[in-house]
Amino acid sequence: MSAINLYSNDWDGNWILFIGKDKSNWSWFSSLLAAKNKYLPGKDTETAIKLVVSCPDPKWRNEGMNGAYGLMAHNNVNWSEEFATFETPYWLRIGKMGSQHLIFSDSVHTSSGKINGMNFFRPGEPDLKSRGKFVEKHAGKNNMVFADGHVKSASLNECAEDYYEHRIAAKVNQRGDSINVYGYTSQGVHKKITVKK
């Protein structure tokens, strides 16, 4: 969060250069904040990634797992303007509801064992290869970071409920909608959780 705040202060309150200026190439968060901008430690991008944005537990780097921390995917979602907006549209600007806005999470997906930067995080999509999912990495808990800087450690079921509330606050879903949330247990077992309130 310190790196994000330093970057945001330098760029008029904007958080992330989310899309390349040709509107097609995604700019990985870790690469953007690497050594050339002095926001993360490390003499090069690869070192910064290993030091900061990847889980050090080797369990989540084996057997084809990508264990980099997950960045919430904001593209193609009709967020409430109080929640998050794109500026110009390359930068992401966080709205007033930062305390309810889930940004980062422990995450894992199966497309690659190589840790090449933060993976985009979409726990509501069943595709295990292309998007990061919640994962119980730490004593049966998953760590989440919200846009106001507070951190929460939760079980998969609790994470699913938080993601449900995240979608309600963002006005993507309405109360009473049923959503499926996907994650991995501490034993590496894939799990689907259905939430409806």
Record the SSE blueprint.
Layout: H1 2-10, E1 16-17, H2 29-32, H3 45-53, E2 70-72, E3 84-87, E4 91-94, E5 102-105, E6 119-121, E7 134-135, E8 142-146, E9 151-154, H4 156-169, E10 179-184, E11 190-195
Distinctive features:
197 residues; alpha+beta; five-stranded mixed β-sheet; three-stranded antiparallel β-sheet; 4 helices; 11 strands; 18% helix; globular
SSE order in H/E notation? HEHHEEEEEEEEHEE
**Which class do the helix and strand fractions yield?**
alpha+beta
Report the average pLDDT across residues: 76
Q: In which range does the helix fraction lie? A: 10-25%
Continuous helix count: 4
User: Whole-number radius of gyration?
Assistant: 16 Å
**Extended strand count:** 11
Q: How much of the residues is beta strand, in percent?
A: 15-25%
Inertia-based shape: globular
Main sheet strand line-up: 6-2-5-8-9
How far the N terminus sits from the C terminus, by CA atoms, comes to 31 Å
Main sheet record: 5 strands, mixed
Q: How many domain regions?
A: 1
Unreliable stretches: none
What does this structure look like?
This protein has 197 residues and is of the alpha+beta class. It has one domain (2-195). Helices cover 18% and strands 22% of the residues. It is built from four helices and eleven strands. It has helices at 2-10, 29-32, 45-53, 156-169, and strands spanning 16-17, 70-72, 84-87, 91-94, 102-105, 119-121, 134-135, 142-146, 151-154, 179-184, 190-195. The strands form three sheets. Strands 6-2-5-8-9 form a five-stranded mixed beta sheet, with helices on one face. The two termini are 31 Å apart. The model has no long low-confidence stretch (mean pLDDT 76).
